[in-house]
Automatic annotation (TrEMBL):
Residues 1-22 form the signal peptide. Pfam families: YARHG. Keywords: Signal. Residues 307-387 form the YARHG domain. Coiled coil: none annotated. InterPro entries: YARHG_dom, YARHG_sf. This is YARHG domain-containing protein.
Length: 391
């Protein structure tokens, strides 16, 4: 019972010291780095973290989920039973849904499979926050009203944990799961809280490696700062387009740096010693180029994301007579072929290929590409304009 009480106490402490971000649209869930939920003097010797976007069947067609796979090597000065896990809000919009946003948990501790248990935090958070004397001691500044707000927020969350029987010395944990992130108009966010690495004894990972495998998705990853003042320097292993651009902050002046990537094959890779992140891992999958994701005008290498013609392509049927007069036949040809370019069509026409090659998202993959209903609607609308000029 003593271990369970310690576990519950540290769940509560973790609730109040973890900062999880919500999405402006439909909030799903965030992945989380596992942390010790009872007193621990265990250090992380090495960690290999793998993020992979994988297509699954969604309500309105194929969608991506984030598959997380991690291999840890821990150093324990003594043998003992430890509770390890993470806390995350579950999904919904204004009201929280009952959908299982996390699934396919698989955990192996020193070669043996263990079960991952999940509970709503309603079971852990007491009604009277003022009674949390342990939490008051833990924080130098205790704000009662803020504590109540956070307790009300996090009680809608889940704690996922498993029991690990550590031996003295080196211990290996292999841990994996899937989650569906958060959805906006034209983009999906897949966030992962890894600053909680500081909860382990050494507050860092001695040998750290991370792989991001986006598949065919166009992705954006804001620059990630580490506590040593340096930034993660992503390397492309494979073939595709990657480059940095700058976006404006929403809530203050200034800009921040974002890595954009569209790969034909391969993955993004980073490896370092003594990894201790200051920023969390945030990845946006840009599903729809004309959605609500705000691109910079161009990247450091000069890649573009949109221009007047690509913007006009999906609103061709609404163009005024004066706007139509300004479009040349070459312009209409570009607009008609824009959906094919987004799908990765390898143009034989050099002018078309050269034109679309200035966009970071254009990765030619072949002649046999798949278009959606909206794409064919664009093509038909532009064809009507082209045919009207032949009369």
């Amino acid at each position: 019972m003593r271990k369970i009480r310690i576990f519950l106490l540290f769940c509560l402490m973790f609730i109040f010291c973890t900062n999880l971000l919500a999405n402006d649209w439909e909030f799903g869930s965030e992945g989380g780095h596992i942390v010790p939920m009872n007193v621990s003097n265990i250090a992380i010797k090495s960690e290999k973290l793998h993020f992979k976007l994988e297509k699954v069947k969604g309500e309105y067609g194929p969608v991506n989920e984030m598959a997380v796979t991690v291999r840890f090597v821990f150093d324990s000065p003594e043998a003992g039973e430890k509770y390890i896990g993470f806390i995350t809000p579950e999904g919904g919009n204004e009201e929280w849904d009952e959908v299982n946003h996390f699934k396919n948990f698989r955990t192996i501790v020193n070669g043996k499979s263990v079960n991952t248990v999940s509970y709503r935090l309603t079971d852990f958070v007491p009604k009277d926050v003022k009674k949390l004397e342990e939490v008051k001691k833990y924080f130098k500044e205790y704000d009662e009203e803020k504590a109540k707000e956070e307790a009300d927020y996090y009680k809608r969350s889940y704690v996922y944990y498993f029991k690990a029987n550590f031996k003295k010395g080196e211990n290996v944990i292999e841990h994996s799961y899937r989650y569906d992130g958060s959805g906006g108009v034209g983009y999906n966010d897949f966030n992962y809280v890894w600053s909680t690495i500081s909860k382990w004894k050494n507050q860092k990972v001695d040998d750290f490696e991370v792989i991001v495998e986006p598949g065919s998705a166009l992705i954006a990853i804001p620059e990630i700062k580490m506590k040593n003042g340096k930034y993660i320097d992503w390397k492309l292993v494979g073939e595709g387009n990657i480059d940095y651009g700058y976006r404006n902050y929403y809530d203050r002046d200034g800009q921040y740096k974002v890595l954009y990537a569209k790969l034909k094959k391969g993955y993004l890779h980073f490896k370092t010693k003594n990894f201790s992140p200051e920023d969390e891992f945030n990845l946006s999958e840009i599903v729809y180029l004309n959605g609500n994701y705000y691109f910079p005008e161009k990247t450091e290498k000069g890649y573009k994301y949109r221009d007047d013609l690509t913007k006009a392509a999906y609103s061709a049927e609404y163009l005024t007579a004066d706007e139509l007069k300004e479009l040349t036949n070459e312009d209409l040809k570009i607009m008609r072929n824009y959906p094919y370019a987004v799908a990765g069509y390898d143009f034989s026409d050099k002018k078309l290929k050269d034109y679309f090659s200035k966009f970071l998202w254009y990765i030619p993959i072949g002649k046999n590409v798949e278009l959606g209903e909206d794409d064919y609607e664009v093509i038909n609308n532009v064809d009507k304009i082209i045919n009207s000029r032949k009369k």
